[in-house]
Amino acid sequence: MKIAVAGTGYVGLVTGVCLAEMGHDVTCLDIEEEKIALLEEGRSPIYEPGLEPLLKRNLHNGRLHFSTNLKLGYRNAQIVFITVGTPEKPDGSADLEYIYGAASDIANSIENDVIVCTKSTVPVGTNDQIKHIMNSTKPPNLKVEVVANPEFLREGSAIIDFLYGDRIVIGSDSEWASGVVEQLFIPFKIPIMKTDIRSAEMIKYASNAFLATKISFINEIASICEKVEANIEEVANGIGGDHRIGRSFLKAGIGYGGSCFPKDANALVQLAGNVEHPFELLEAVIKVNNHQHSLPVKKAKELIGSLRGKKVAVLGLSFKPDTDDVREAASLTIVNDLLEEGAVITAYDPVAVRNAQNILGDRIEYTTEIQTALLEAELAIIATEWDQIKHTPLDFFLLYMKEPIIIDGRNCYPLEKIEQYPLTYISIGRPAIIHEYRKSSL
Ligand code: UGA
Fold first, then answer.
1. What residues in the chain have per-residue pLDDT under 70?
2. Which among 195, 217, 245 is the end of a domain?
């Protein structure tokens, strides 16, 4: 099939590359010339495991193309995927400017019937509006149908999620359109669910809101565990053993971040408010999550008092491992809170330093070496559970730090292992390990 993809962000690139891999002729379009030039050289503008080899392979075999010429790209496409961003507006609602812009660009360019498939996360009713825009702009002899096809891929495992996802949702009121899109996805051997357009749009928001709720729920239980001297890991295993609940997304920590959960939760609260149904449960989920982000510095102050002039190592900047994305990352709150307390910070991350630097600037030092961050530090705060951090020998904390105090926001180490070392270790929802031993008092 001849496919065009509007927007080369996370979703667009992964969609384009994977559909080319399945044998389709795919053109990915974007207005950013630099990005397209980079992609044409087979280089990915984002860090995503497995993406670049697929990108290179499909460029070389001629199935994948990149262009800034929107008109040419849309002109003869049979299906156009809209994968442009829906950034958050100041009131929490989704900004649909790019979505509607893409819809009118497509309508102005097509020379044959087309199916527009929206993968971007959009509020309920957006696809109806897309259809309206296209029908009022397109040549009268051509047919345009709209399909809501939400994407459930995770950063860091996006290729695997696209190729081997749990389900594919096809929301449309056109049998022709949903049939064509179904044919496109049948070879993936993933269960396909056909729904009406609005239900498909809602499935995406409700999925992310439910996962965010699981996280805030387990984080609240973790806080209670700390007070009653229970261990959140045992508790999560115990409740997750019930298959009706499940163990996934019950990992306690300093809260969710990224470009999806925070934005989508806010947008759903906004959407619910618009139809006069205050979504109090989700509002609480968001409140709990904001609180989690500020836990490490609160815990640090409780333990060591003033942080003024203290050298602190922040380990991990990305919102989760295997991505260089720092959007809404807990690390940003931690760094800002530490700066407010007057701490001196060296932050470590294997891949996200550049993105973090764009937001945090030169107010802190950055490194891609854990040892450098730990050197002479009086406190280490773990914000992301990178393998590099999880596999750091615990000796390093003793060897390099001035005071071996760790606040672990992601429960990276088993307590039994920590207990073998003279470390002070505070994690989330597990008993604190306090060692009176201080290097400085020797
Ligand atoms: C999320 C969803 O998982 C995808 O299904 C969805 O397609 C995507 O949003 C989107 O809407 O585009 P993503 O944001 O890439 O994917 O990352 P997740 O792996 O879901 O993690 C989100 C955040 O939750 C991370 O900060 C992670 O550290 C945190 N988390 C996750 C926890 O704190 N505990 C857990 O048990 C799981």
1. 437-442
2. 195
